[in-house]
Amino acid sequence: MSLRVLVGCKRVIDYAVKVRVKPDSSGVVTQGVKHSMNPFDEIAVEQALQLKEQKLASEVVAFSCGPAQCVETLRTALAMGADRAIHVNVEGAEYENMQPLAVAKIMKKLVEKEEANLVIVGKQAIDDDCNQTGQMLAGLLGWSQGTFASKIDVDGEQLNVVREVDGGLETVQVRLPSVVSADLRLNTPRYATLPNIMKAKKKPLDKMSAGDLGVDVASKVSTVRVSEPPVRQAGSKVESVPDLIQKLKEKGAL
């Protein structure tokens, strides 16, 4: 079976940036902050490209939904080697409050439109850590799913997915079409070279809105408050084990 792969590419605040909460506690500061592709999605793109290099996939299509700046994220995927890209424009409050279910519904429409038979997404986004989109998409499509994948092998019309679980590694066999979410150890994403960055500017990038796909992205969830984690208190030294036990008793830890 020749695979047509759709890959999710979310634009998030860069992992190296220290996130700051807005003064009104309504969210985090995004204006003037460096953004990049979600690291787990980079791994997903790399896996799709490897499948194409192995002659197992015929086409890799990158997808992102969000504001106009998402085009930059998609250009990165194209520079890595994706064939085409699709940007579903969602702006303002709708984007800020958009939930994984809305993204999954958009992806379902694109899967049907593109006749894809494999979707690869990052296991989670580093901004909201939801870890829901892939599972919801599989449910909406009625497809099999392989989550937290650390290795993927194509076996005819099936995938052998090695996934990380609390007790070690678990291998599951899923029938295509399927949705797979990429874990950290699946691969190491390639860097986009300058020639490929230049080529990416000429690759097809389709633009549309959620309305064009007939998807309502209005959030069913509202954020009450966003706050920073409490500052860790300084530790203290004790001279002996009896002193340690006494300190723990005083703090109610024993």
Give the gist of this structure.
The protein has 254 residues and is of the alpha/beta class.
Chain-averaged pLDDT: 92
* Major pleated sheet: 9 strands, mixed
- Which topology does CATH recognise? Rossmann fold
Q: How large is the radius of gyration?
A: 21 Å
Terminal CA distance reads: 61 Å
Low-confidence stretches: none
Structural summary, described in words:
- The chain has a single domain, classed as 3-Layer(aba) Sandwich (Rossmann fold), CATH 3.40.50.620.
- The mean pLDDT is 92.
- Helices cover 28% and strands 28% of the residues.
- Helix 2 packs across helix 6 (194-200).
- The longest helix has 15 residues, at 39-53.
- It has 7 helices and 11 strands.
- With 254 residues, the chain is α/β, with parallel strands linked by helices.
Task: Provide keyphrases for this structure.
9-stranded mixed β-sheet, Rossmann fold, alpha/beta, 254 residues
Indicate the topology.
Blueprint: E1 3-8, E2 11-13, E3 35-37, H1 39-53, E4 57-66, H2 70-80, E5 84-89, H3 92-96, H4 100-114, E6 118-122, H5 133-141, E7 144-155, E8 158-165, E9 168-175, E10 178-182, H6 194-200, E11 205-209, H7 241-250
Parallel strand pairs: 1-4, 1-6, 4-5, 5-11, 6-10, 7-10
Antiparallel strand pairs: 2-3, 7-8, 8-9
Helix pairs in contact: 2-6, 4-5
